[in-house]
């Protein structure tokens, strides 16, 4: 207001004073006139004094109003652990109508804040996937008008410490996840405010995605996702994302739970490698003191060496790095590999069957223990429920040849099927779903030409190999095989693929020192998560995704 | 031999032939002489025929001997999963005297092989930490001499498939871990042999280390360890190492078990970073397509961003990278970080106490569930049992000031104690052990000057900080603190440490978007393992260790 007066000094000229001065100027006042004036002045003085007294009283009253609530609201000092009253703070999810009348204390985000007149404020308070309606009502000696005004002005996404009385809601509050109670606030303090503009609201970020169509507007979608990823900290606050990353946690837990029960040992292999292994083209190079190193593109070599060291059964959960300039919905330059390797007694199908058991354990575990999270994700990403085969017939297993036949029957030219490309993989997924009613299946016996040098050839047909891929919704999520444990055959394989055996002498030595037959596989954690939930883009399954164009946040 | 004859043609001239030629040359033989010769030739021919027949018979007999056992031994063809008889193979650990008379099949390494005469061979067969004595005795129709000879010639560390009858041992066999039974072999086949010279035997590698002395010969020890690490696949086959890595598995399991029970979510943060964060000097640089990236030296920034995203409590197990040219017993360039971060309600001691509970859970769990492994390691690395305080007084907690006082009392000059260096840390460990009878303790309230920019200062004394280190046997195994969640204070901290806030804008933004008070810590997995077992060198606690001089195997 002060600024407005200064910048517009002539818009509202004083109307009375100049006219009075003009009228009085020529002649002096009479005595009676002076007396009258003195009287009026005295009157005005008294009136002013009265007004001043009144103002003072009102100010005192107003001051008294601020005072009575001043301790009940406002910004807290920066928490530097000044004190520790050890007062219990509750989770919104734990509040029930049975607690009616209890006073509770909780830390939460302000999801929304809405004033109703000057005496009432409705707040939606959020903790992760849970929210509750909180109500602030002006009441003498408790909640002041100033407190209500302050609360109504809280920026959304602020973090507050709220004290209130739990009340059974008169009717279910649909805007809150805990809808059968509300919180009648008695105190409200700001723990952490915002010092920047919110790029989008969490409500906006949590809205259902437009249904996927064949002719989807990829450009539009990409922009949306990029905005989310650029502001990932806000994006991750959605109910959907809290559910997604609880499910990611669940997959890791179920993976380890199953393998621990099967006698596996968890290992941690180095990501820094002395040589560019497997396929030099897609390996990141690192400056290593005065020399160089390379980032492991899988724990393949290390886990095989662990088998040569008699570890028998090992798994690893860790980052793998791929220097591939692929900008697709399913490629990242860094992702989490769920890898395992095990000694074989008789036949590599021992490994394939264990892997199948592992996937079934994960699928069942997710459905049983994480149904709330799956439902939360489905609200934003509607999808057919993921289907697999239970029952005596077991998981569908096709040979590569049978998979090709299915595609040929469906109209694909056989000469295009030396390999099955991504489009045909998806097509096969649709064929299999229609014919066998499953989103999960295994393809066995890949042509040797399509597999890495360490893959064991088929004993009867050397153009085939003892290798398999696992699929979810028509996309590969695991690749594995029996490995070559004979050093001579391994060297031949290396030479055939243009790799100098001398560059991998440590690896070769492991087999020269005696190694049992073995096999294994590698699973992409984010792919399993993306495909189980049908998130459509792998970046949504990674906390802070990395691709050729993204190294931040 | 052919080469030797060619290169020394004159050293052994034919001695007989020239003399005979010279003697016979002048005169021809008489008729009776010729007759006599013919008779003798006939006799010799018959004798030769007889000898040949005899030899043939013996050969037939010998051939018959080979035949009767030929299927019972020898090298198996390369296992390419030709067949799957689904015959159960047993674990040595499962064999008991109650199984006397049962025929079993097992895959194992040949630990030792020793012939007793030509009719008996003793083999020690090994599976990981277990071994058994196996006996091969020549018996008609069952075990041939050839089979015994072949078995006696098996190279140690070969992998065999052994069939035999379980027999109660007449007396406990001390050389085997399963000493109350032995295996009377009926079949023995080679699965995988050696194609190189064994650098050292597993028996040698498993011998007790010389006791540590104050004046230990470090040079000698380092050479030994290097030999092991250069041939890590053989070194890892020792009982000690199988136990060490089962214990490593156990620490990870106990870490997750405790935190899962405390409502934590496991996260996976990217190791590829767009900027050299925290302290630029010790970060590895990566070629990233046409630009560059850096390897994360901790998940610090990511886990804090997860807190700003309302994850509340997170942990991560993953590699961290340090480009420090430190060649000590306790530094590696890559190790496994056990990291956690959590929101604080009132005071950072909530975090410190949770971390203390975590360590006690790990210590108790290791002692309860892994006593066999701890004992196995102690055979090679004798050490006082790791001690911690149970009971009502709880874990020893000292302030940095109190720790300094203890050192000063012990004779260290106070002016040398602005920081506590490695030598004084160890000294403090000995003082604490003597005074408080514990190998595990916490130091709280470090000077602010010693901590990173994101550390929260003490509310009363800004030269101190809300930070702590945890120690085992006088070495730091965890560093942690309350973090600064206020963006302005954080920017000030960055500038004070010479970091441009613009280079970490994504990180700063997380706090500008509202973030609860929080704290956490990072644990070095290999350090905990090394110090719990007193392995004396961190490389022994890493499967394939990496240091400035080692990138292989």
Task: Please tag this protein with its features.
aminoacyl-trna synthetase (chains A, B), RNA binding (chains A, B), disordered N terminus, ATP binding (chains A, B), OB fold (Dihydrolipoamide Acetyltransferase, E2P), five-stranded mixed barrel, alpha+beta
- Total domain modules of chain A: 3
CATH architecture assignment name of the largest domain in chain A: 2-Layer Sandwich
Shape field of chain A: elongated
Q: Biggest protein-protein interface?
A: A-B, 116 and 116 residues
Oligomer: homodimer
Question: Which strand order do you get reading across the main beta sheet of chain A?
Answer: 7-11-12-17-16-15-14-13
- The CATH topology of the largest domain in chain A is BirA Bifunctional Protein, domain 2
Highest CATH level, the class of the largest domain in chain A: Alpha Beta
Can you walk me through this structure?
The structure is a homodimer of 553-residue chains. With 553 residues, the first copy, chain A, is α+β, with helices and mostly antiparallel strands. Chain A contains 16 helices and 17 strands. Chain A folds into three domains: 73-77 and 86-192, OB fold (Dihydrolipoamide Acetyltransferase, E2P) (Beta Barrel), CATH 2.40.50; 202-236, no CATH class; 239-540, Bira Bifunctional Protein, Domain 2 (BirA Bifunctional Protein, domain 2), CATH 3.30.930.10. In chain A, the strands form three sheets. The first copy, chain A, has an eight-stranded mixed sheet, sandwiched between helices. In chain A, strands 2-3-4-6-5 form a five-stranded mixed barrel. In chain A, β15 and β16 (475-482) form a beta hairpin. In chain A, α8 crosses α10 (349-369), α8 runs antiparallel to α11 and α8 packs across α16. Mean pLDDT of chain A is 89; it is low at 1-26 and 213-223. Chains A and B meet through α7, α8, β7, β8 and β9 of A and α7, α8, β7, β8 and β9 of B. Chains A, B: Residues 1-52 are annotated as: Disordered. Chains A, B: Residues 1-10, 17-29 have a biased composition (Low complexity). Chains A, B: It is found in: Cytoplasm. Chains A, B: Pfam families: tRNA-synt_2, tRNA_anti-codon.
């Amino acid at each position: 207001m002060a600024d407005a007066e200064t910048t517009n000094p002539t818009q509202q000229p004083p109307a009375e004073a100049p006219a009075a001065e003009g009228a009085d100027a020529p002649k002096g006042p009479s005595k009676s006139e002076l007396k009258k004036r003195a009287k009026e002045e005295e009157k005005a003085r008294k009136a002013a004094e009265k007004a001043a007294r009144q103002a003072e009283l009102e100010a005192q009253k107003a001051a008294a109003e601020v005072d009575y609530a001043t301790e009940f609201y406002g910004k807290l000092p920066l928490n530097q652990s000044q004190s520790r009253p050890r007062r219990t703070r509750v989770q919104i999810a734990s509040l029930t109508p049975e607690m009616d009348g209890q006073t509770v204390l909780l830390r939460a985000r302000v999801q929304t804040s809405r004033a109703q007149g000057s005496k009432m404020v409705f707040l939606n308070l959020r903790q992760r996937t849970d929210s509750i309606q909180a109500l602030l009502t002006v009441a003498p000696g408790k909640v002041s008008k100033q407190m209500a005004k302050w609360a109504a002005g809280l920026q959304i996404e602020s973090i507050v410490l709220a004290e209130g009385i739990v009340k059974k809601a008169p009717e279910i509050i649909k805007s809150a996840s805990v809808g059968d109670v509300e919180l009648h606030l008695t105190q409200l303090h700001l723990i952490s405010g915002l010092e920047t503009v919110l790029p989008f609201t969490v409500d906006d970020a949590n809205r259902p995605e437009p249904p996927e169509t064949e002719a989807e507007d990829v450009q539009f979608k990409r922009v949306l996702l990029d905005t989310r990823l650029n502001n990932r900290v806000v994006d991750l606050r959605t109910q959907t994302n809290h559910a997604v990353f609880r499910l990611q946690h669940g997959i890791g837990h179920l993976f380890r739970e199953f393998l621990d029960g099967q006698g596996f040992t968890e290992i941690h292999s180095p990501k820094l490698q002395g040589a560019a292994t497997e396929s030099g083209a897609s390996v990141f190079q690192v400056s290593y003191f005065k020399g160089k190193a390379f980032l492991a593109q899988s724990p393949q070599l290390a886990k095989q060496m662990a088998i040569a060291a008699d570890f028998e059964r090992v798994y690893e959960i860790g980052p793998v790095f791929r220097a591939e300039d692929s900008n697709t919905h399913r490629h990242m330059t860094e992702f989490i590999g769920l890898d395992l390797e095990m000694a074989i007694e008789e036949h590599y199908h021992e490994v394939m069957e264990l892997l199948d058991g592992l996937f079934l354990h994960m699928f069942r575990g997710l459905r049983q223990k994480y149904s709330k999270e799956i439902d939360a994700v489905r609200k934003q990403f509607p999808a057919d429920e993921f289907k697999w085969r239970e029952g005596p017939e077991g998981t569908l297993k096709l040979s590569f040849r049978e998979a090709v036949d299915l595609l040929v029957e469906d109209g694909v030219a056989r000469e295009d099927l030396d390999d099955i490309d991504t489009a045909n993989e998806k097509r096969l997924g649709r064929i299999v779903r229609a014919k066998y009613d499953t989103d999960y299946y295994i393809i066995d016996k890949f042509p040797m030409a399509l597999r890495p040098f360490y893959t064991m050839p088929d004993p009867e047909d050397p153009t085939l190999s003892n290798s398999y891929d696992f699929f979810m919704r028509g996309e590969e999520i695991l690749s594995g095989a029996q490995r070559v444990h004979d050093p001579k055959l391994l060297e031949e394989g290396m030479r055939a693929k243009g790799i100098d055996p001398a560059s991998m002498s440590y690896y070769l030595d492991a087999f020269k020192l005696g190694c049992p037959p073995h096999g294994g596989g590698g699973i992409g954690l984010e792919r399993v998560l993306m495909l189980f939930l049908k998130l459509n883009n792998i970046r949504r399954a990674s906390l802070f995704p990395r691709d050729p164009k993204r190294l931040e946040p």
